[in-house]
Amino acid sequence: MSARPIGVFDSGIGGLSILHALQQALPGEAFVYFSDAGHAPYGERPDAFIAQRCLHITEALIRQQGIKALVVACNTATTVAIHWLRQRHPDLPIIGVEPALKPALERSASAQVAVLATDRTLSSAKYQALAARMAQAYPHARIVAVPCSGLAGAIESGDVALVDTLCARYTAQACQTAPGVDTLVLGCTHYPLALEALRRHAPTGLAFIDSAPAVARQTRLRLGAMGLLAPQPKGWPPQPARPGLQLLGSGDVHALQAQAKRHLAHLAHVGRIGEGAQAKGQAA
């Protein structure tokens, strides 16, 4: 069992930000990444359709790839379908993702945090419950939600000019809505892929936090507790991830391969978001 791959899926390329963190935390593991680009974007789909796609992908990864764990690397899919996936496959470790509000609040000196996310995520009952819990735990904090319509789609399509325009718009909106904000939560797995554009338009000192490190830590903990970890390379610093990645998708797989090569290299170049922060992270 420990030699089997870990499955990771998203509606498109956004989950590559999660995959990168998983590869860094688990360099001895093999991964299978599935992009459901042929049915994206999930944010415009009914819940029943998203749940059906998530179940279909999960069962295909189990049956055809023999995965030992599954990472749902999509906020919308986690919100809509993770409870159904866990009910259907109770013996499979399934880790989801949600906006990293707690680590952002722990890091923020001003106690003002802005969350960049899709309308679908911000309006979901799961996010509203999370925000309510954080408001209760941090009563003096302010959490500002900034819906980023179109940003995930622009990143997915590779429209550099549109990505830059939208990053400028939404960082400005976050800072105008909460003038004292010092921490920005990237509440969609696509957004770390546009980190350079976000940083370019953000005030100096604004920190960015995403969920990927927490998802990677949670995955490692779950696999370790179940005795499913593959042997990890020894020594310090950790060795780079060894080859062990299979890319699958419902769209153009050749395009996915090119995007994965570019974005995984880019993420390694820009560094981990939230690096050096006090954040302990969140995973669903």
UniProtKB/TrEMBL annotation:
InterPro entries: Asp/Glu/hydantoin_racemase, Asp/Glu_race, Asp/Glu_racemase_AS_1, Glu_race. Coiled coil: none annotated. Substrate binds at residues 10-11, 42-43, 75-76, 189-190. It catalyses: L-glutamate = D-glutamate. One of its GO terms (biological process) is cell wall organization. Keywords: Cell shape, Cell wall biogenesis/degradation, Isomerase, Peptidoglycan synthesis. The active site is at 74 (proton donor/acceptor), 188 (proton donor/acceptor). Its EC number is 5.1.1.3. One of its GO terms (molecular function) is glutamate racemase activity. Pathway: Cell wall biogenesis; peptidoglycan biosynthesis. Belongs to the aspartate/glutamate racemases family. Provides the (R)-glutamate required for cell wall biosynthesis. HAMAP family: Glu_racemase. This is Glutamate racemase. It comes from Allofranklinella schreckenbergeri. The gene is murI.
